[in-house]
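Q: Predict the bound structure with pyridoxal-5'-phosphate.
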Amino acid sequence: MPALSKMVVDLKRSGIREIMDMAGTMEDVIHLEVGEPKFDTPPHIVSAALEAARAGFTRYTPNKGLLSLRRIIAGRVEEDYGVSVTSENIVVTVGGVGAVAIAVRALVDRGDEVLIPDPGWPNYESIIYCAGALPKRYPLSRTNGFLPDLNDLDQAISAKTKVLILNSPSNPLGVVLPSELVRDLVTLAKRRDIYIISDEVYDKIIYEGRHASALSYDTDGRVIGVFSFSKSYAMTGWRVGYAVASEPVADQLTKLQEAYVSCASSVSQKAAEAALLASQDCIEEMRGTYAGNLAAAREVLDGLGIRYQVPRGAFYVWIDVNSKDSATYARALLSREKVAVAPGTTFGPSGSRYIRISLASDRDSIREGLRRLGSFQHE
Ligand SMILES: Cc1ncc(COP(=O)(O)O)c(C=O)c1O
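A: Predicted complex:
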């Protein structure tokens, strides 16, 4: 047989997947590793999809997504973030990950650099790698409240830098970028003439303060906003998200949709319409549950004297387990205490002393998992 693609052979898999695979061979494991709402998709959203399927709404949609959905999204973006956009600025994608993937691919050529947060969502690195570009990490350090430092970023930008990826609220830190910083980051991108891909898939899951969208500060079409139905509406399996971009960029994204996936699922797009048009109370209910889970987690962690980053958004807690290598730590925690967590190293080199737990797990599991983590630490 001829050799398989070297690039794909060399593609690294997520460290969370390794823990999940290991946990899959064991019984009675407490699962805190996966970033996925436990909730079922709200019934009115499911009904809309069923009705659409029964009515024969089962064919391809335009590459860019249904015009009806794009119009609703454009209205929502305008309402939420005060940005004047039309359906032409919206591309409906296969989840948020689909939007990040085509946004990166649409902007870079081989050898270009893309700045990504450390720690940050692991897919950024693999997506950039698959586009033939080079991920370059910018540090988010505890001493700076895990916020990006403008001067450091300014220095990290080289002639090869094409894109800066921002993620707020962030996975794994739960950091919500203050609006002034978001504004300054967009100004920096403009001064240094680079794009921003602003991953805002957790925009509706905020515990403190308000979400500031980078789109609100964009004056010349250099920000591509990435959003998703997965987290806000418990719709991870429906695979529907969207990108908001200037028309030339949106057209570029649409060409890639055609090449890679044709379009997002038609019934999922109908479900997404129902999600946006109906009452938004379901978001508030889920957010309330995550906030309760956070309070429960904090109580146990504070009792154990374990240091952690208090999230202001998203649904994760970044816990300092003071390990030298959190991948080894997570494997040992799983095999000895039957608690599955995401190793910090999977989010970047700065995560070696940390692990991440998901607040989207059930409350009793969070309490018990953290208690076990406490006794494991003190062994
Ligand atoms: C930061 C971040 N961006 C994007 C995504 C993509 O989610 P989806 O493709 O389900 O919309 C995730 C999922 O975990 C995420 O954590």
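A: The chain has 13 helices and 13 strands.
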